[in-house]
Design goal:
The chain is of the alpha+beta class and 214 residues long. It has 4 helices and 10 strands. A 5-stranded mixed barrel has the order 1-4-6-9-7.
């Protein structure tokens, strides 16, 4: 019988084991781990301990994400990310979320892809910073030349804002979510840098321990 520890040595952890950028990639082209596709009506999320994709919850509403939805490896939303949003004091304590537009219909999650950052949405969820980076699939035949959020049709961003403002709705219960601030590529890269700094502040010791064992 194999233990979980044995198996985790063979499967690279999407959060800790992957790099946010491939070698020699431009600063705005990032590796993304995808958790959900636009077809999903169940909220899937990475289990941080095991590195496997798990069912978080069935969606209560009929809406599904209007883009591929995942996170950036080796990022974490804590003190530095919270500083980017003056109206809050804390961030949500998860890897930094990212939405990726693709012209071709990608139908499966638990995959890694390269995406070009074009902007983001400053989401405040119940008093916590929970930014959503917006990107396009690198090399995409329709969206591949997009460099900034202003190059995308506004309806693309509006659909993301609508999804994130409603996907936690429960009839009769007020949920405080704000998705009013949409920002461009440069601010998105600053948020990503803050999330990378938070990651190394909180989880850098894991990599130091791994190097010490080599």
């Amino acid at each position: 019988m194999y233990s979980n520890r044995d198996f985790n040595r063979w499967r690279r952890h999407p959060w800790h084991g992957l790099h946010i950028r491939a070698d020699e990639a431009p600063e705005d082209v990032l590796q993304v781990y995808i958790e959900m596709t636009p077809d999903d009506v169940v909220k899937y999320e990475l289990d941080k301990a095991s590195g496997f994709l798990m069912v978080d919850r069935p969606q209560r509403t009929t809406s599904s994400p209007p883009a591929l939805y995942g996170f950036l490896p080796r990022t974490y939303c804590a003190e530095e990310v919270a500083k980017m949003c003056p109206s809050v004091e804390v961030a949500d304590g998860d890897p930094l979320d990212i939405c990726v537009f693709s012209e071709r219909h990608i139908t499966r999650a638990d995959i890694v892809l390269n995406a070009r950052v074009v902007g983001g949405i400053q989401m405040i969820d119940d008093g916590e910073a929970d930014d959503k980076i917006i990107a396009v699939l690198e090399g995409d035949n329709i969206w591949g030349d997009v460099k900034d959020i202003s190059d995308l049709p506004s309806i693309k961003t509006e659909r993301l804002q609508h999804y994130f403002s409603t996907y936690k709705m429960i009839p009769g219960k007020d949920i405080e979510i704000c998705v009013d601030h949409v920002y461009g590529r440069d601010e998105a890269l600053r948020v990503i840098a803050a999330a990378e700094k938070d990651y190394w502040n909180h989880y850098g010791h894991l990599h130091e321990q791994a190097k010490a064992k080599e």
